[in-house]
Write a structure and sequence with these properties.
The complex is a heterodimer. By secondary structure, chain A is an all-alpha fold. Chain A is built from 15 helices and no strands. Chain A folds into 2 domains: 55 residues, no CATH class; 173 residues, MetI-like fold, CATH 1.10.3720. In chain A, helix 9 crosses helix 15, helix 12 packs antiparallel against helix 15 and helix 14 crosses helix 15. Chain B is an all-alpha fold. Chain B is built from 16 helices and no strands. In chain B, 35% of the residues are buried. Classes of the chains: A mainly alpha, B mainly alpha. The interface between A and B is large, with 91 and 103 residues.
Chain lengths: 306, 311
């Protein structure tokens, strides 16, 4: 054992005692970071799978106690949540699709040097990052002029082209796709549209994945636009339904009607919230391992290019 | 022959270049309409900050009132409080959220085991995917006076349960530290990306000179990522008064409004909820202008001092 350690040390550049202490500190920092971030998440999941009594008595610390699926049974019977889920899926998928088309079109044109007017349009995009008309002028346009209140358009169109994504994608087109390919295409008589469809897009998988991911996460998680523009309850996206249940505490009590006394109802509503949290965050967390690679890559592209 | 030679040197005329770009105008049409309609046309609507807006008369027909609404706002008792709340909360968040991603990124960069590094990264990004509604409800659940696990721990340790959400003094810290929890891993990625660009020779030279690991961080890593740190700092300062609406609005209750009412929530309440469109636009415009001003000031300063700028 000690021999092995000596051998290993000889293989490397000699480590001072200070360096070894340093390595331990690094490991401790990372372990601490994992613990702080993961513990609340684990607690939520464990609590949602435990019995009401165990959660109320504070017996849940890390793993589920008295395994129970009662909270989930109730959640899946909760009509509003299911409607919100469906709405959020529709808004997220259509919003992401619109956003991808618009971002790609704009970024592609801005990346081409022979596009006369790219500087003007580029500045127009940049300027939206540093100055915004503000809530009321936008509200007057969307709600009063366009009459988009209570429609899906109010949620997917007004923010469908994020300036930051345009810049990210443009720098990808400029730096990660060899310009010779476009030149060759041009010589062969490809129109810009053909160049976009047959050259740029097939080579842009990672950046498209990143922007799709960002947009989808953004739309799925936002409630602000719906709060401002949507009045009809059956059009509420999931986050707005969650706000009513989790924050405003306006839970439909009929779902816990079969419980007799007040205390167990209160306990059930506490427990139910944990299950609601898990169910609502599930789609993104399930998607996460698959897209994680792209997720990091996207920020790297943006970070390196500043 | 000589003509074609000069043709190459002289740039094509504007008409020719526009002609050649025609297909691009077809592609950029939708994004351009979008920009004009949803980003620039509303800017014309800002004029209602100087007008007494009436729905019947519309944005253009309403009568001018000059700076009336700005006067109303600045002479009101709430203005000072709201501006201070916004500013102090932003500053607290800016300062508190700054060091942790950098420390995490440096620790990740020093980590020898690839697997351990991957796991840490994956876990620490996870909160980024949690929505604001869920995050705030987690805060409410955890700090619940009777059932929340934070108070269960306090009780077990023999303390008295604390009503975190019902005490004015805890609001800022709850807001800021849960924000740090959520964004730490995500923010660390940018620094980590910058750190992977450090030339290996620098480390080797330092090793030969007998520099300890700590010394290498202080003398190589930190100077190397300083421009990134500064760039992010400029961008963050530019948004010092535009602190996000979503989380604060959800965390607000009748008890903490004296410290939790910020410009964005005030604009929402005055405009969309109460229908004071002109007043709300004036407050919003003031906010945007301060942001723009701060961004320009910090950017200019940084350009002068360190040659880093974002604009």
């Amino acid at each position: 054992m000690s021999e092995k350690r000596i051998l290993r040390r000889q293989g490397h550049v000699y480590e001072t005692r200070e360096d070894r202490v340093f390595n331990v500190i690094v490991a401790l920092i990372l372990i601490l970071a994992i613990a702080i971030v993961a513990y609340p998440l684990i607690y939520v999941v464990s609590a949602s799978f435990s019995s009401t009594d165990a959660v109320m008595a504070g017996r849940v610390w890390l793993l589920p106690v008295d395994l129970s699926l009662k909270a989930y049974e109730t959640v899946f019977k909760y009509q509003e949540i299911m409607t919100g889920y469906k709405n959020a899926l529709i808004y997220t998928i259509s919003g992401t699709a619109v956003s991808l088309v618009m971002t790609t079109l704009c970024a592609f044109c801005l990346s081409r040097k022979d596009f006369y007017g790219r500087k003007v349009v580029g500045f127009m995009v940049l300027f939206t990052m540093i100055f915004n008309a503000g809530l009321v002028p936008n509200y007057l346009l969307i709600n009063n002029t366009l009459k988009w209140g209570d429609t899906i358009w109010a949620l997917i169109i007004p923010n469908c082209m994020n300036a930051w994504y345009v810049i990210l994608m443009r720098s990808y087109f400029e730096n990660s796709i060899p310009n010779e390919l476009f030149e060759a295409g041009e010589i062969d008589g490809c129109s810009p549209l053909r160049q976009l469809l047959n050259i740029a897009i097939p080579l842009s998988g990672p950046i498209i994945a990143v922007i799709a991911l960002y947009s989808a996460v953004g739309i799925w998680n936002s409630y602000y636009d719906a709060l401002v523009y949507i009045r009809r309850k059956e059009m509420y996206p999931l986050q707005l339904v969650l706000r009513n249940i989790l924050i405003l505490n306006s839970m439909d009590m009929s779902v816990t009607a079969d419980l007799r006394d007040m205390a167990s109802r209160q306990g059930m509503s506490h427990l139910l919230k944990y299950a609601v949290i898990v169910v609502s965050s599930l789609p993104l967390l399930l998607m996460y391992p698959f897209v994680q690679k792209y997720f990091v890559k996207g920020i790297m592209v943006g970070g390196v290019k500043g | 022959m000589s003509r074609s030679k000069t043709d190459i040197r002289i740039r094509p005329s504007v008409g020719k270049r526009i002609c050649k770009s025609l297909p691009y105008y077809g592609l950029i049409l939708l994004p351009l309409i979008y920009l004009l309609l949803f980003k620039y046309y509303p800017m014309l609507g800002i004029q209602i900050a100087f007008k007494k807006y009436k729905a019947k008369l519309g944005i253009w027909g309403s009568p001018w009132v000059g700076l009336k609404y700005f006067n109303d706002f600045f002479s009101s008792a709430t203005a000072g409080t709201i501006i201070w709340n916004t500013f102090s909360l932003s500053l607290y968040y800016l300062v508190a959220s700054f060091p942790f991603p950098i420390i995490l990124a440096i620790a990740l960069n020093e980590c020898r085991s690839r697997k351990f590094q991957k796991v840490t990264q994956m876990v620490t990004y996870m909160p980024y995917f949690i929505s604001t509604v869920v995050l705030v409800s987690m805060i409410l659940q955890f700090t619940d006076i009777s059932n929340g696990f934070v108070n269960q721990i306090i009780r077990r340790l023999g303390g008295k349960p604390i009503n975190f959400m019902g005490t004015v003094g805890y609001f800022r810290s709850l807001y800021v530290w849960t924000g740090v929890w959520q964004s730490m891993g995500y923010s660390a990625i940018v620094y980590l990306a910058a750190l992977t660009g450090v030339p290996q020779e620098l480390y080797e030279a330092a090793k030969v000179d007998g520099a300890s690991k700590l010394r290498r961080i202080v003398s190589i890593d930190i100077p190397y990522i300083a421009p990134t740190i500064l760039t992010l700092f400029i961008l963050n300062t530019g948004s010092i008064l535009s602190i996000g609406f979503e989380k604060i609005y959800l965390m607000q209750n009748s008890i903490n409004t004296p410290v939790s009412e910020v410009i964005s929530t005030y604009v929402y309440k005055m405009g969309v909820q109460n229908g004071n469109f002109s007043f709300s636009t004036a407050v919003g415009l003031f906010n945007s202008l301060v942001n723009l001003f701060m961004l320009l000031v910090v950017n200019t300063l940084s350009k002068k001092l360190t040659d880093v700028s974002v604009l």
